[in-house]
Amino acid sequence: MTSRTRPVRTTVSVVAAVSATLLIALAAFLGLQHQTSANQASGRGEGRSAGAEAQELGDPDYGVCRGTSAKCYHDWGNFSPAADGYRVLLYTRTAGPRHANLGPTLGTGLNPTLADTNVVQNALVRMGTKNGFTVDWTEDVTQLSSPARLFRYNAVVFYSTSRDTLDDAAQTSLRQYVRGGGGFVGIHNAFGTEYNWPWYEGLLGGANFYDHGPDQRGTVVVQNRRNSSTSDLPARWDFTDEWYNLVPAPSKVRVLASVDESTLAEGVTGNQGHPGHGRHHPVAWCQYYDGGRAWLTTLGHDAKAFSTDGSFPGADQFQNLILGGIESAMGRTPFCRAG
């Protein structure tokens, strides 16, 4: 009798164990479905799906060498500043919303005519002239379609580009340029660009735009005083911006500056519900990425940030910040030093 009941008990145990496993799996599946439905129903901004997944899975892996170690930089001898000087390409093409400080859409080709209202383009050209480097500008994607063309520049600057601003050829060209030791500078809505290209998200520091709170005054806190872009800045300085919230937030980068969220009178909660980043809300950082250098800032929304008459608090500091970022990305000054 006992010999017959043992198999029955064993069977019951096995069935119970299998049932428990199935229930756990079913619960996990339903939980995942609930989370997915909640994310979809919440009306998140563009890029939300990839960002949410990255946040849930932890630090994204972009399959390249990235971080703050110069071991991730590849010097292929593509640049000869002693012979060619320093040259920057400014790219401001928008395939979606266009920031007012970019002014009217530019014509085709390289260095098309600028209007006075093309504030960003005019300001960076003046910055280059004043500081001894040449700035070319374009919104023509064909100007980025050849790695050989990009290797004429020590750095490529994306300033408030938007959405799918590159075609396949330009994507390939940009990646080859960075892999060949090129410098990349992403400013403001460069974070609202190429949402569906994981390599580009990694170039931004493993970060992506999610939303932002009200355009308001706040205090920028310098986190690294040895970096070329922040060494001459005060420890704290006031500035007005949109204060981007990011999903995912930057990782494996050297944070250069952050915003003190407690100084934002209207709060930092974004228009899609992001609550902000608390005590660690980065606004500028740097990294080595896939062979090249990348310097990034989410600041730069307002045209008045390029004023020179002292009427816009923090304008001088902002301009010095991006000047230092450009010069370090193109290799003119030490890049991404530890604080």
UniProtKB/TrEMBL annotation:
Region feature Disordered, mapped onto this chain: 38-58
Keyword Metal-binding assigned: no
SUPFAM superfamilies referenced in this protein's UniProt entry, alphabetically: Class I glutamine amidotransferase-like
Record Gene3D superfamilies: 3.40.50.880
Residue stretches spanning the membrane: 12-32
Segment forming the signal sequence: none
Domain ThuA-like, residue spans: 121-326
UniProt entry keywords in alphabetical sequence: Membrane, Transmembrane, Transmembrane helix
Protein's UniProt keywords contain Membrane: yes
Pfam families: ThuA
Listed name of the protein: ThuA domain-containing protein
Upper classification of the organism: Bacteria, Bacillati, Actinomycetota, Actinomycetes, Kitasatosporales
